[in-house]
Amino acid sequence: MDLLKQIPQLDRFIQNISFEDFKISLLKPLAKEVLEEFRQDILAKKIHTFNENELILKVKKKYEDILKPSLIPLINATGIIIHTNLGRSLISKELIQKVQPLLSSYNNLEYDLEKGKRGQRYSHLKKLFSRLCICEDVLVVNNNAAAVFLILNTFAKDKDVLVSRGELVEIGGSFRIPDIMEQSGAKLKELGTTNKTHLSDYEKAINENTAMLMKVHKSNFCIKGFSSEVDFEDLIPLAKKNNIIDYYDMGSAHIFELPFGLKEPKLLDYMKKNPSLLSFSGDKLFGSIQAGIILGKKDLIAKLKKNQLLRMLRVDKLSLALLEEHARILVLEDLEKIPTLKMLYTPLAKLELRAKTLKSKLETLKILEILGDNSFILKSETPLGGGSNPEEKIPTFVLALKYKNIKTKILEEKLRENGVICRIEKDACLIDFRSIQENEDEKLEEIIKKVLEEVLIND
What we know:
34% of the residues are buried. By secondary structure, the chain is α/β, with parallel strands linked by helices. The longest helix is centred in the first third of the chain and has 20 residues, at 24-43. The model has no long low-confidence stretch (mean pLDDT 92). The two termini are 42 Å apart. The protein is built from 19 helices and 17 strands. The strands form five sheets. A seven-stranded mixed sheet has the order 4-12-11-10-9-5-8, with helices on both faces. It has a four-stranded antiparallel sheet with strand order 13-14-17-16. A two-stranded parallel sheet has the order 1-15. It folds into three domains: 2-67; 75-82 and 345-458, Aspartate Aminotransferase, domain 1 (Alpha-Beta Complex), CATH 3.90.1150; 93-337, Type I PLP-dependent aspartate aminotransferase-like (Major domain) (Aspartate Aminotransferase, domain 2, 3-Layer(aba) Sandwich), CATH 3.40.640.10. Helix content is 42%, strand content 18%. The protein has helices at 2-6, 10-13, 24-43, 52-67, 93-103, 123-133, 144-155, 177-184, 199-205, 232-241, 267-271, 298-306, 310-313, 317-331, 339-345, 348-362, 368-371, 408-417, 441-458, and strands at 75-76, 111-112, 117-118, 137-141, 160-164, 170-171, 175-176, 187-191, 210-216, 245-251, 277-281, 292-296, 376-385, 388-401, 420-421, 423-425, 428-432.
C-alpha cells in the first residue's frame, strides 16, 4: 500500500510545469480520472512501481485526444466521385471564400431591404433557381429524405399515394420509402409488380382518396430483363386530368449531359413538362452541399412553407449562401469550378498522365529494390457513387501499388492511417486518379513515400 501514499495530490499534480499551457477547466477533471485509474490499478495489483512522468503523459494524451478534430480531410483514392462515406460532393475553396463575408457579418437572411421589415429566407434562391431549373419556385430543406417527408406530410396525410412496387426502395442508413411514408402520415398504395408497372395500373388505382402519383428514383439498384416502368412525364398529364399531385423523388438529378453514356434523370427534361413537384439531393450529381432541393408550382411550394415541420427541416445561412453561389456557377456553365463535375468530365488521358507521373517519382526511391516493386499503371473502371447509375462504371486510370515484401492489406491500412483511402483489387492497392484532386498529387506522393519507408523500417 506504499504506492497509494505516493499518488500525488490533484492540486499539486496539475501545477506541474508540463501543464502550464493547458486550460485548467479541462485539465483538472482529466487529471482526476488518471489518478483514480492509477489508484484502482494499484488496488488490483496491476501496478507495482510509481512513475509520475507516466501519469503526466497519460493526462496529456487524454487532453490532446479530446481537442483533436474528429472530422479530418482525406485523399479519396477510391475513384468513387460521389462517395457517401467520404462526404459526397466537394465544395471549391473559391466558392467558400466567396461566401465567407456572410458568415463573419450580419446579413439579410430574413430581412427585406426594400421594405425594411422581415423577409423570407428562401427568396434568395428563387431568382437563380427559376432561371436554372425552369421552375416557378424553390424550397430547400436539410436533405432529400426531409424533402420527401415534408411533401408527403403536407399533401398526403391520411390519403393515398400511388407508387410502383418496383420503386419501394431502401437506400443507405436503412432509409425506406414505405417507412418514411408511414411516418409522414401518408397511405402507401402499391401498384404493379416488382418488375412491371404500367400506366393503366395508376389509372385503375386512382379514387377519391388519392392525393398523389409518386415516382421514386431507384438509386442503388436496377431491374433488368423482362421489366418495364412508367416514365414520370407520363404521370404528369394523368395527375392533372384527375386533379391530383404528381411528384418525382429524383434522388440524383443533374443539369448537364453526362459523359460515358451515364443515364440519370435529367432535371430540365422533366421541368419542361410542367410537373407539380420534384425533389433531389444537392450533394450528388448536382455537385453542391447536402440539401433537399424541392422545385415546382408556386402554390404548392407556398403550402410546404406553411407546414410547421419546415421549422425543424430548414437550412441555415451558410447552406443558402453556398447554394446560391453554386446556382450562379451553373447558370454561367463554369463547370470547372464544381469539383464533382470537374472530376466526372476529366479526360482519361489526363488521368493517365498523372498516374504515370506519380509512378516515375516513386521509382526514384532506393528502397524499392528491397521492397520488390511490382507496381503498374492500369486502365480501370469505377462506380460513380451516391446511388447514381448503380450498374454502370466510368473509365479511369489507376496506379496499382504492389510490392513483394509488403502485404497488400498492411499497405492499405498504413495508407489509410495517413489519410489516403484506396481500394484493393487483384492483390494491389489501387490509387484511382478519377477522385483525387490535382492539388493533392504532391501530398499523395509524400504520403506513399513515407508509408513505404515506415513499412521497411518496422518490418
